[in-house]
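hey m, so remember when u said the tokens were messed up on ur end? i reran from scratch. heres the input so u can diff it against urs
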Amino acid sequence: MRNFLWVLPVFVVTTMGTSLLGARGGAAAWAATPPVNACGCYRDTTGSCYCGKKGKCDCPGECEPKGCEEKRAKELEREVEAETKRAREAEKKQRALEAEEKRKAEAVNDEEEVAAKARAQAAENADDSGDKSEATPKSKKGKNAKADKSGKNAKSD
């Protein structure tokens, strides 16, 4: 117990000293290291930006590592270029489809013209053959036609 009484004042003094220093030292330590943003960077009291070695580019418009703005500009340029390329390819495909449809329509029109010409030619040929058939007597149809061929019902003049 004697040892305990001798250690007790030392213990009390150290506890009080650390609590007093901790309160003051904690506030001083808190003020010395300002809050770090998502990029791992912070601003000091003068407004200068300081970043850790493993800073990220996740804080546009805030304090962030050097080169992040350039990276962002390059990425935007790549995206614009890719979108422009996609638009050009889509336009090219659209023009190819339109040209194919036009070719098909022209082919159908050509086929219709050929068919119309063929019908007109057939009609002309029919008219020409119709004039010749009027000059020659038409054959009889039915039972009498068979008889005429055999010569039984032939008229004698």
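this time it looks ok to me. The helical segments are 2-32, 68-135, 143-150. if urs says something different then somethings off w ur setup not the seq
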